[in-house]
Automatic annotation (TrEMBL), chain A:
Family matches, as Gene3D superfamilies: Periplasmic binding protein-like II (3.40.190.10)
GO CC annotation: extracellular region; outer membrane-bounded periplasmic space
Keywords noted in UniProt: Amino-acid transport, Periplasm, Signal, Transport
Family named by the database record: Belongs to the bacterial solute-binding protein 3 family.
Protein's UniProt name: Family 3 extracellular solute-binding protein
Species for this entry: Mycoavidus cysteinexigens
From TrEMBL, chain B:
Membrane association type: Multi-pass membrane protein
Protein's name according to its UniProt entry: Polar amino acid ABC transporter inner membrane subunit
Keyword line: Cell membrane, Membrane, Transmembrane, Transmembrane helix, Transport
Keyword Membrane (UniProt): yes
Record field: transmembrane: 32-54, 66-87, 107-127, 209-230
One annotated GO molecular function: transmembrane transporter activity
Record GO biological process: amino acid transport
GO cellular component terms listed in the entry, alphabetical order: ATP-binding cassette (ABC) transporter complex
Stored Pfam families: BPD_transp_1
Organism: Mycoavidus cysteinexigens
TrEMBL record, chain C:
Record key words, sorted: Amino-acid transport, Cell membrane, Membrane, Transmembrane, Transmembrane helix, Transport
Record domain ABC transmembrane type-1: where: 20-216
A Gene Ontology biological process term: amino acid transport
InterPro entries, alphabetized: AA_ABC_transptr_permease_3TM (IPR010065), ArtM/GltK/GlnP/TcyL/YhdX-like (IPR043429), MetI-like (IPR000515), MetI-like_sf (IPR035906)
Membrane topology: Multi-pass membrane protein
Pfam family, one: BPD_transp_1
Molecular function via GO: transmembrane transporter activity
Subunit structure: The complex is composed of two ATP-binding proteins (GltL), two transmembrane proteins (GltJ and GltK) and a solute-binding protein (GltI).
Organism: Mycoavidus cysteinexigens
Protein name: Glutamate/aspartate import permease protein GltK
Positions of transmembrane segments: 20-44, 65-83, 95-112, 153-177, 197-216
């Protein structure tokens, strides 16, 4: 009886909220909202090195963050509002989609994979980066590929494509792995560094970022056959063609003008904050191809 | 934004290929919450009684030990204690012991850290109640027992504790309810209990509201069941001759 | 043995201080709103009007049967939309901060109202009769006679609940708000010094809470005479 009451009350609260949200958003595009409030809300990651993370004093930096700031500039120009206020909200793999949907953030440029499943709920901009999912392990661990993980403990980040692939692989190939789903990349790396797991499965560029962070980076190595190609895009609300076009055009212009390669070098081939580490991560063929012909296609 | 309610999603197979449904994940979470809470409750009762008795002993050092236990475990937030047991302690013990612990299957690591942490945290609260219960008894009871030739341990075993525990059943009830609620904090070290399943379900199904509602309702249900159970305990353990007694 | 490296703490003190400010702000807001709203709930619960008493009872029961972690997650989910449509807050406000403050205030009110209700009920009934006999209305007798006495008896309990609340604010970890503890773990994970940062955070909470509870006990001793 009490239970039923609670459920009814919660559902009522939920429905009420949605009707408010609908009334609020009907006919209001993101650009209009930004214009009216003079503010744009960006979602960012707290530890996706080198895409979006805290340098020092909680200041957000990174490869994807530069794209986001370029998009903000383009919006300022479009709306003729030179001093937009930028509100930064840290997000996790698990809450980023609800936060886009409920309007807490307008745009998220971090390390979010554009896939068909997510396209049901949100829209993606032109691709800003291409990665493949691989493994980070200790040099002396003896792990060379995914088959070596049989019966071992593997860390990954909750809510990512790697988590899904790893769990499915465990099931299909009967590997009997123990999978730890950490709350973010730096916690997953902590699992590897402290010896709780033998490997960390994630997008290769992020693995390079985590390795650079280690007390002794030379002890870690990226191995394994790429399990999937992932296209990172900026995430925005669905059904907002004007905003999407502005974002897409900005990204395309950066990539074809050569500016994109400069941003790449800055974050992947030069020392980066907070501790001046160099990822030494050369651009992949896929990324070079993308910069020649920008697009917003999800990878398989 | 428009939201499509779909409760049926809970009955569909999980997208990772494991032979279960989303409802199965939810049940796993429920099982973890209940086992964690009950196991921690046993530790809490033992630790709480032990230190509670220590606090009432005439020996200054022993009662001081009890006081330190309570001060430490009550003045550090529970989430910090979880981090200390899971992340910090294995690094501080001798390396071979730490490596052994960290080599255990992750579920066992999460679970043992969580049980010990939650048990000792709740134990500090129970300790205070046991002490209050013993001190609330008329001093004549202890003196009479000693005069009858009981040793001090016997006095506790046969006279003081049976009376004290009956007095503290109502505050114990609220601690028993709290242990279920506090078990949700274990999600922060990675244990997939009920509240962590709410987030995993909403992530995999994209149906946040259904996931949160079913989990929240489940906590309310646990609460109701525990309350009924403890009311029964209270009724059967009442002392004859007291106001609430038969 | 583990090689401690405490050097990171000095350089991150300013960031940690910002986190502590968030912690203190949430605690202060929740204590104030919690006591006010808790008093109202307690009065509703004791009021002779059945629907009001029923509402207060439901409210308290619901909040007391759900873990704080779930409450925080719920409010983080619901608050952005409710706020935008109901309050029209300036858009530059951090939504996690607002939703944490609202969640804590509403959640703690349920606990405060139980303390306050017990305090009110501990006032001898004769006082209410006497106030009635003097021609006071219900509100007047509560405000002028019952509540002042009840609060005096409750102060230590309310303060202790405040200390518990101060510790509970560390749970904003689950919504990613950088309070004191979350700031400490963020820095610790980034610099590979999680062990040191967690121990340091634990020590800070311990010192603050022990100091505060000692003060409360002194206060209690002085006024219980």
């Amino acid at each position: 009886m009490k239970l039923k009451k609670i459920v009814v009350a919660l559902m009522a609260a939920g429905t009420l909220t949605f009707s408010y949200a609908q009334a609020q958003q009907a006919g209001t595009s993101t650009l209009q909202k930004i214009k009216d409030t003079g503010t744009i809300s960006l979602g960012h990651r707290e530890s996706s090195i080198p895409f979006s993370y805290y340098a020092d004093n909680q200041q957000v930096v990174g490869y994807s963050h530069e794209y986001a700031m370029q998009i903000v500039k383009a919006i300022e120009k479009e709306l003729n509002k030179p001093q937009l206020e930028v509100k930064l909200t840290p997000i996790t793999s698990q809450n980023r989609i609800p936060l886009i949907q409920n309007g807490t953030i307008d745009l998220e440029c971090g390390s979010t994979t554009n896939n068909l499943e997510r396209q049901q709920q949100v829209a993606f901009s032109n691709t800003i980066f291409v990665v493949s999912t691989r493994l980070l392990t200790r040099v002396d661990s003896g792990v060379k590929d995914f088959a070596d993980l049989k019966g071992k403990t593997v860390a990954t980040t909750a809510g990512t494509t790697s988590e899904r692939i790893l769990r499915a692989m465990n099931q299909d190939k009967k590997l009997g792995m123990n999978i730890i789903s950490a709350k973010d990349h730096s916690e997953a790396f902590l699992m590897l560094e402290t010896g709780r797991s033998v490997a960390f499965m994630m997008d290769d560029a992020l693995l390079a970022g985590e390795r650079a962070k280690a007390k002794d980076p030379s002890k870690f190595v990226i191995v394994g056959t790429p399990q999937s190609q992932e296209a990172y895009g900026c995430m925005l609300r669905k059904n907002d063609p004007a905003f999407k076009k502005l974002v897409d055009d900005t990204i395309a212009k950066l990539q074809t003008s050569g500016e994109g390669s400069k941003i790449y070098q800055k974050w992947f081939q030069k020392p980066i904050p907070p501790r001046n580490l160099n990822l030494n991560f050369p651009p992949s063929e896929e990324l070079k191809a993308l910069f020649k012909s920008p697009n917003d296609q999800a990878k398989g | 934004m428009s939201y499509q309610w779909n409760w049926g999603i809970l009955l569909s197979a999980v997208s990772t290929g494991e032979p279960t449904t989303y409802l199965g994940w939810f049940m796993d979470g429920l099982k973890a919450t209940v086992t964690l809470s009950l196991a921690a409750w046993i530790i809490a009762l033992i630790a709480g009684s032990l230190f509670g008795i220590l606090r009432t002993l005439p020996n200054k050092w022993l009662s001081g030990l009890g006081a330190v236990y309570v001060a430490v475990f009550r003045n550090i937030p529970l989430i910090v204690q979880f981090f200390i047991w899971y992340f910090v302690l294995p690094e501080l013990v001798p390396p071979s012991l730490g490596a052994w612990f960290k080599g255990l299957p992750p579920l066992i690591q999460f679970f043992s850290s969580a049980v010990v942490c939650l048990g000792l945290f709740t134990g500090a609260r129970i300790c205070e109640q046991v002490r209050t219960g013993i001190l609330a008894l008329p001093p004549g009871q202890k003196n009479a027992a000693l005069a009858l030739g009981f040793t001090l341990p016997q006095t506790y075993r046969y006279v003081l504790l049976p009376n004290a525990y009956r007095i503290i059943v109502p505050p114990l009830t609220s601690e028993f309810l709290n242990i279920f609620k506090n078990s949700a904090v274990a999600s922060t070290i990675g244990l997939l209990e009920l509240s962590a399943q709410a987030r995993q379900l909403s992530d995999y199904t994209a149906h946040t509201y259904e996931s949160f509602i079913i989990v929240t309702a489940c906590y309310a249900l646990i609460n109701a069941v525990v309350m009924l159970f403890m009311r029964w305990v209270e009724r059967t353990s009442r002392l004859p001759g007291q106001i609430g007694g038969k | 043995m583990y090689q401690f490296n405490w050097s990171g703490i000095t350089s991150s003190l300013p960031t940690l201080a910002q986190g502590m400010l968030i912690t203190v702000q949430i605690t202060a807001a929740a204590v104030i709103v919690g006591i006010i709203w808790g008093t109202i709930l307690a009065l509703l619960r004791l009021s002779p009007i059945k629907p009001l008493a029923w509402f207060a009872k439901c409210y308290v029961t619901i909040f007391r049967s759900i873990p704080l972690v779930m409450v925080l997650l719920w409010f983080f989910l619901l608050v952005p939309q409710l706020l935008k449509s109901l309050l029209d807050l300036p858009p530059d406000i951090d939504i996690r901060f607002v939703s944490a403050i609202i969640a804590f205030s509403l959640f703690e009110a349920a606990y405060y109202s139980e303390i306050i209700r017990a305090g009110i009920q501990s006032v001898p009934r004769g006082q209410v009769y006497a106030a009635n006999a003097l021609g006071m209305t219900y509100m007047q007798s509560m405000r002028l006679v019952v509540l002042p006495q009840a609060f005096r008896a409750m102060v230590p309990l309310l303060l202790t609940q405040g200390i518990v609340l101060f510790q509970d604010t560390a749970l904003v970890y689950v919504i990613g708000l950088a309070d004191f503890f979350r700031t400490a773990t963020n820095i610790g994970e980034r610099d590979g010094q999680l062990v040191e940062m967690v121990l340091f955070a634990g020590a800070c909470y311990f010192v603050i809470c022990l100091f505060a509870s000692t003060l409360v006990r002194r206060f209690q001793k002085r006024y219980s005479r």
